User: Fold this.
Amino acid sequence: MSVEIIGVRIDRLRSADIRERCAEWLLQKERRRLHQVVTVNPEFIMEAQRNSEFRKALNAAALSLADGIGLFFASWILYGWRSRLFRVTGVDFTWMLAELCAQNGSRVYLLGAGDGLAHAAAAVLQRRYPTLVIAGAEMGIPKVVAKTSDLLDKELCEKICSARPDVLLVAFGAPRQDLWIAHNASRMDGIAIAVGVGGTFDYLAGAVPYAPKWVRSIGFEWTYRLMTQPYRWRRIITAVIRFPIAVLRSKFF
Assistant:
């Protein structure tokens, strides 16, 4: 089951259902196809209003997760309590995938973020799950490259595929990471799951502080981010002001 929030589809699945679905994809070895997973937050939905290509990629994903307390409240307002979304953050989903891969011998490739962060994040995942196989970890295409060429994309996909990963975690930031996966899905044979994880590597590596669990549980993660990362104020305004206004407009006007 899924709901639509201002033109963007979000799957209404609990963590156990998500885990089961991903396990099935990982265990399917023959005629495997890539399943793109998107972790949607309010900023994604607002970006999708003006970026049709991004909206198309989000709606075409095999699995669309609600990453952000704002989506929980938006679904409640639009569809009622019984149809509310269940929040699964990019960080939580990454831990879930790492555990699944460690259990069944699947291989994980980490791509993106700043210099050295993919390696640091991989080390953190492997410390928690010693049997986890890291197929690769690299920065990939630097952020300074605004638009990658088709040749660069092809070479990078060939390098990734040569490492034979089952799961690809891409941390280019949105919408770049999700569009990159969508554009190159046909080039990544053998990969079961590819997901854009945003700032997850930064959090895992300790480069950016992660809000305490109790803060996240009451929906005040944005306040913590504003205090620890004040340069994100424009993004926070989008999430806590522009997005709720857009939701109310779609409901009542």
Q: What stands out?
A: The chain has one domain: 2-24+32-252. The first strand starts at residue 2 and ends at 5. Residues 2-24+32-252 form one domain.
